[in-house]
Amino acid sequence: MILDIEISDLRKLTEYIKTKGNYDFTNYAMSSFKRRILRILELYRLPSVDALIEKIESEPTFLEVFICEITVNVTEMFRDPSFWRQLRDEVLPNLLLNHKSINIWHAGCSSGEEVFSMAILLKEANLLDRVRIFATDLDKEIIQKAKKGKYTLKNMELNQKNYIRFQGKFELSKYFKEEDGFAVMDPSLVENVTFRVHDLVQGPVFNKFDLALCRNVMIYFNQSLQNSVLNKLHESLFNYGYLCVGSKESLIWCDSANKFIVVNNEEKIYKKIKE
Amino acid sequence: MRNFKINSDYKAVVIGGSAGSFQGITKILSQIPEDFPLPIIMCLHRLKHVRNGFVEALKLKSTKDIVEPVDKESIRRGQVYLAPANYHLSIELGNYFSLSTEEMFNNSRPAIDITLGTAAYAYRHRLVGILLSGANRDGGIGMARIQQKGGLTIVQDREECMISTMPQAALDLAPMDYELKLNEIIDFLNQLHKKLNS
Predict the structure, then answer these.
(1) Region B164-191: what's the mean pLDDT?
(2) For all residues of chain A together, what is the average pLDDT?
(3) Is residue A2 situated within a structural domain?
(4) Is residue A75 assigned to a domain?
(5) N or C: which end of chain B has fewer CB within 10 A?
(6) Chain B positions touching chain A (beta carbons under 8 Å)
(7) Domain match, A98 and A62 both
(8) pLDDT of residue A2
């Protein structure tokens, strides 16, 4: 029958990873975390969680592989085009009305699709040189991938459809060239982007931002971890800075919720109003 | 009318459907008692990039309110839920939902196997699973999981299905308790309603 894992096995694994690798998955949402583990067992033909622990123990490099596989790195350019239109037409004009330059943080940037979306949006609005972007992720490998901006043509089809719905000024193909069956994004788009490894769960507050995007990242955490990560995001924002989360995420049960107001409920755009 | 042997410890109903299931779902929702006490959790294949409109279309004839849950939303008695576009919908231990943007499964996001499989894990034998018409095999593993955990499994009658690939996938993996026509599924839910309210 179909392989399954017990909760006790998952606990054993998260304890081990915490001690061994200083990554804390204790408060990840259970069902998606379990699916990630099952996926790893299947990919590497491991019969059990014990075998997985044994593999990490005996092959030091496998820990990085594990981190890479455990994090969900499925993303799109201009996912939710109406959200990106809202950023372009409302949020950014509002921020840049009062500031000469602004800081943007992509927290949990994965393979970088949203970073490129942002850069394209800014370039088309002639704002790219007024913005400093920080893009961070837990996973070293994926940060390298994001920097390169190299995507499969199959994914590019979806990205192009989203770009059209976003009502971009040109065609998405203006921003990449095809190389060996891949789309390679124009590197000038991200020359002012700082890509950096940062752990949203255990890492420090490292800068202050006018706009933070953390879309479909906290869905992988349980409520108690969402709560502490939201505190961190709150602390990382200037007063009157904006926070954007995924279209089906909600902050209402977090302690810091009353320190934000809803700017757009449909697109889940919030504004910090209290320190 | 067929009489079903029903016990009263069910806590939730999950429904999966794809191509050819819209009419069936609409019919079920239009005939279900307004005070049906269990949560009904639906995972239906839908356009990935159309966020709005589907709930509204289902609500037109439904006796009950329907919502797309947000991440970590508590599951309430008597509420009808629909998996949102472009997210997988899971049921967590502790009676709440979680969403994820993981890889597509069976070419689908939301994937029925994920919703049904996590529901089976959370509710075990206290779950009713219903799988309707559909053109791919998504839902088969989920129904098998429900069967494995001792829940009640119903697939739509293959002759009645517009496309029977989906119920067939479930039947290929595990014995299902019932293979029913839509009208019988509605009878079943009505009898379940009576049983739970008695």
Answers:
(1) 98
(2) 95
(3) no
(4) no
(5) C
(6) 49, 51, 68-73, 84, 86-88, 90-93, 98-103, 114, 118, 121, 141, 144-145, 148
(7) no
(8) 59
Q: Which of B45, B62, B88, B90 is catalytic?
A: B45
Which phi and psi angles does B129 have, rounded to 5°?
-110, 135
Same domain, A216 and A165: yes
Tokens representing A188?
A: 């000038």
* CATH topology assigned to domain B12-197: Rossmann fold (3.40.50)
Q: How far apart are CA B176 and CA A222, in angstroms?
A: 34
Structural domain range at position A20: 7-70
> In whole angstroms, what is the distance from residue B85 CA to residue B154 CA?
25
Residue A165 has pLDDT above 60, yes or no: yes
Backbone angles phi, psi at A128, to 5 degrees: -55, -35
Contact of B108 with B142, CB cutoff 8 Å:
no
Q: Do B49 and A253 touch (CB under 8 A)?
A: no
Domain end: A39, A70, A101, which one?
A70
| Same-domain check for residues A181 and A115 | yes
In this structure, are A215 and A194 located in the same domain? yes
> What does the block give as tokens for B12?
């939730």
Residue of chain B with shortest Cα separation from A220: B100
Instruction: Estimate to the nearest angstrom the gap between the alpha carbon of B28 and the chain centroid.
Output: 11
Q: Which of A7, A8, A9, A31 best probes binding to B when mutated, by most B CB atoms within 10 angstroms?
A: A31
Q: What is the ipTM of this complex?
A: 0.94
pLDDT tens digits, one per residue of A95-135: 999 899 999 999 999 999 999 999 999 999 999 999 999 99
Q: Is there a single domain that holds both residue A16 and residue A85?
A: no
Q: Is the pLDDT at A1 greater than 50, yes or no?
A: no
CB contact (8 A) between residue B86 and residue A32:
no
> Structure tokens of B26?
């609409």
Which residues between 195 and 234 in chain A have a beta carbon less than 8 angstroms from any beta carbon of chain B? 216, 218-220, 222-223, 226
pLDDT at B48: 84
pLDDT at A3 over 80: no
The pLDDT value recorded for residue A195 is: 98
The b-or-e profile of B44-77 (16+ CB within 10 A means b, else e) is bbbebeebeebbeebbeebebebebbbbbbebee
Nearest to B71 among A80, A162, A249 (CB): A249
E strands in A88-192: 102-107, 131-137, 150-152, 176-179, 182-185
CA quadruple B63, B65, B66, B71: dihedral sign: negative
